[in-house]
Amino acid sequence: MSEADARPVWLLDVDGVVNAAAVRPKDAVWPQWRTGWATAIGSSWPITWAPPVVEAINRVHDSGLAEIRWLTTWQEEANGSLAQLLGLPELAVVPRPAEPEGRRGPHGFLGVRAGASGSWWKLAAARRLLDPEPHRPLVWTDDDLVWEDDAREWADRRPGPTLLVAPATDVGLTADHLAAIEEFCADAGP
User: What's the CA gap between 50 and 173, in Å, rounded?
Assistant: First the structure.
């Protein structure tokens, strides 16, 4: 593993993590929220975010503390109008595993499960990326991690340092989450 590859990888979801999925997020979490619209899958989607979250993502990215990759149903479209709206750089995307024929609907894949095993597609994608580098530090931010026992068990068994963050969907990442992520990346990096 090269020194660049020894940096933590941060798997970043959009909805419920960067985009607070709420009509009116809690002011107690962030005193300032911004709203806008981003386009994906041929439709416009409401986006609500806290500028300090975007600032922290940019800070980690720009400093090289971690390699940040999108792991989101937005896939490559996260680098389009969403990244432009938020002021984020283009990030690598962890590709979604191929879905069996006939499982796609008008809005992409049907459900959040993939394959005959019924496993979460994001776990399969994370494993494909990180199993070849089992000691590489990992930060994974996804609100669905709270429900995904298999993903948490896999993370617990990894020999490399791992930080899982499952924010509340209606708030997304908080100041405490961001501080923990930055500290983890600084401590776990080369």
Answer: 9
Rg of the chain taking only CA atoms, in angstroms: 16
Question: What does the chain come to in residues?
Answer: 190
Contacts of 27 (CB under 8 A, 6+ apart): 33
In angstroms, the Cα distances linking 138 to 39, 129, 175 are 29, 11, 19
Tell me: the pLDDT tens digits for 6-26?
A: 899 999 999 999 999 887 888
Contact between residue 115 and residue 97 where contact means Cβ atoms under 8 Å apart: yes
* Residues 6 or more apart whose Cβ sits within 8 Å of residue 54: 18, 86, 87, 88
- Tell me if 22 sits within 8 A of 170, measured CB to CB: yes
* pLDDT of res. 105: 43
Closest CA to 81 of 17, 14, 172: 14
How many other C-beta atoms can be found within 10 angstroms of the C-beta atom of residue 177?
20
The neighbour count for residue 150, using CB atoms within 10 Å, is 13
pLDDT beyond 80 at 47: yes
Indicate the helix (H) or strand (E) that contains 120.
Answer: strand 119-120
DSSP letter (8 states) at residue 158: -
Q: What is the pLDDT of residues 105-149, one digit of tens each?
A: 444 444 444 443 458 999 999 999 999 999 999 999 999 999 999
Query: What backbone torsions phi and psi does residue 181 show, to the nearest 5 degrees?
Result: -65, -50
